[in-house]
Write a structure and sequence with these properties.
CATH architecture: Sandwich
CATH topology: Jelly Rolls
Oligomer: single chain
Number of helices: 0
CATH class: Mainly Beta
Number of strands: 10
Distance between the termini: 11 Å
């Protein structure tokens, strides 16, 4: 889970709580695996920009919009959250990894809330 609170009069809040696993890393980078569906809570945040690595070609769905995700590519997706209290992202396909019982989606490598990098 990732939780962000801004302690001033803006009352900005972000929690990535649904469909995510613990943070993982190797010697070069850190990421968070998602499930096939993931989302959370937002308050007073206009946009969430997520940098994604996908091990398979996939489609990401948010509200009534969709975008292709490609392997061997840095995929950057900006989600409009103006006026929202929650958000949900869905992926068309899950990733199956031998000896891993989790339902995997994509690796999140960076999260930006409006202009603030939080991961």
């Amino acid at each position: 889970m990732i939780k962000f609170n801004q302690l001033d009069d803006t009352n900005r809040e972000f929690s990535l709580v649904d469909g995510v696993y613990n943070q993982e890393c190797d010697s070069n980078k850190t990421w968070i695996w998602t499930s096939q569906n993931f989302g959370g809570i937002v308050s007073n945040i206009s946009h969430i920009t997520i940098t994604i690595n996908s091990d398979i070609q996939n489609m990401l769905y948010y509200d009534d919009l969709s975008v292709g995700l490609y392997p061997n590519c840095v995929n950057v997706v900006k989600l409009n959250t103006i006026g929202k209290k929650t958000f949900e992202v869905k992926l068309a396909n899950r990733l199956i990894v031998n000896n891993d019982s989790r339902i995997l989606g994509v690796k999140i490598t960076r999260i930006v809330l409006d202009q603030d990098v939080i991961f």
